Amino acid sequence: MSDWLARLQMDVGMTHRSDWLLVDQAMIDQFAAATMDRQFIHTDPERAAKTRFGGTIAHGFLILSLLPFLEEKASAARLPDIQMGVNYGLDRVRFVSPVRVGSRIRSASTVTAITEKYPGHFEQVQDIRVEVEGQERPAIIASWITHFLL
């Protein structure tokens, strides 16, 4: 086992949380424009107010797409010598509860496995939860697989 692998495996089982991030209507609207998903529940506050959500909610894929941003600082602090990280995929993604406009979210990630694929190239598996401030249920749960190079 390499020294790096031994060092990295010390993180297995530990949960790290990101800083909070505000999800506002401007962010939702920009995502809607970029993805061409302009369903009213995301973009029409008046019409969305008449639904069971009581207002607009973020796209599930918007929240999912924020994972790299949310995780960047926590990963940089734990893994300062990484040259490059690459998304490998997600398993068991579930959109558990909506994120209402004006909510704050953060990631809570627990490293479940890390392996050295070849010298200096590692695969990390994390259980991810996107937490919504003031809510018990997370917005998203998933298993996230990343590769990184030292």
Report on the structure:
The protein is 29% helix and 37% strand. By secondary structure, it is an alpha+beta fold. 25% of the residues are buried. The chain has six helices and six strands. Strand 4 and strand 5 (121-132) form a beta hairpin.
**Mean pLDDT, as a whole number?**
90
- What is the oligomer described by this structure? single chain
DSSP strand tally: 6
The radius of gyration computed from the alpha-carbon positions, rounded to a whole number of angstroms, is 17 Å
Largest sheet: 6 strands, antiparallel
Helix-strand category: alpha+beta
Strand-and-helix sequence, N→C?
A: HEEHHHHHEEEE
Overall form: elongated
> Roughly what percent helix?
25-40%
How many helix segments? 6
Beta-strand portion reads 35-45%
- How far from one another are the termini? 16 Å
Give the low-pLDDT segments: none
